[in-house]
Amino acid sequence: MVKILTVCTGNICRSPYAERYLQDGLDAVAPGRFEVRSAGTQALVGHPMDRRSAELLAEVGGSAEGFASRQLDERLLAGADFALALTTVHRDAIVARSPRMLKRAFTVREFARVLRAVAASDAGSLPRGSAPDDVEARWKALPKLASLRRHAARAAEPGGDDVVDPYRESSAVYARMVDEMLPALRDIVAFERAAARG
Q1: How far apart are CA 94 and CA 89, in angstroms?
Q2: Which one of 51, 110, 138, 145 is separated from 169 by 20 to 30 angstroms, measured CA to CA?
């Protein structure tokens, strides 16, 4: 099973949205092959998903039911194949806590660009197909390929890797959060869908 951890600050707005969207999307492509969880660098431990984030998640068919925020720790990182941060600050915090994540920690937006670059340049190097062994082999090969493509897939503008924090902000900021994050989440699911087709 491929384990992905999404990370923001409080683990009630951005990373839960990313967690639930990715879990649903990847389950639709490869049922039971992915486990997506989330955590916060300063988590509001045990809190449910923020109401407005949950409403926006529901608009794309997701559910916040049963969610409870978690604190990021070494145990969670030790079990993760990839950690997807919502800002570069979160990404740096992940690597500081677990140096083994250096080639496995990306921002969500960065990871989507890297996967597009890998698909364009290295598709022949990746195992393809939807069988459990194919999925496992593909995601085991990704850290090396992703690290090679990371530089070429840099954001075009400063701040282009970050997703705005909407906590205690207006509805417009929540909408901006989705606008900044959702295309990247869709691209991550699309990468796996294309690779699974073989």
Answers
A1: 9
A2: 110
Mean pLDDT split into 10-residue runs, the chain, 198 residues = 98 98 97 97 97 98 98 96 97 96 96 93 84 94 89 76 96 98 98 91
User: For tokens 């990847």, what's the residue?
Assistant: 26
Number of domains in the chain: 1
Q: Give one DSSP letter per residue of the chain, joined into a string.
A: -EEEEEEESSSSSHHHHHHHHHHHHHHHHSTTSEEEEEEETT--TTPPPPHHHHHHHHHTT---TT----B--HHHHHT-SEEEESSHHHHHHHHHH-GGGTTTEEEHHHHHHHHHHHHHHSGGGS--SSSHHHHHHHHHHHHHHHHHHTTTT--SSTTTT-----TTS-HHHHHHHHHHHHHHHHHHHHHHHHHHT-
How far is 138 from 2, CA to CA, in rounded Å? Answer: 10
Interatomic CA distance for residues 7 and 40, integer angstroms = 5
Q: Which residues contact 190 (CB under 8 A, 6 or more apart)?
A: none
Biggest CA-to-CA distance, the chain? 46
Residue 153 confidence (pLDDT): 77
List the CATH number of the domain containing 147. Answer: 3.40.50.2300
The predicted pLDDT at position 75 comes to 94
pTM (predicted TM-score): 0.95
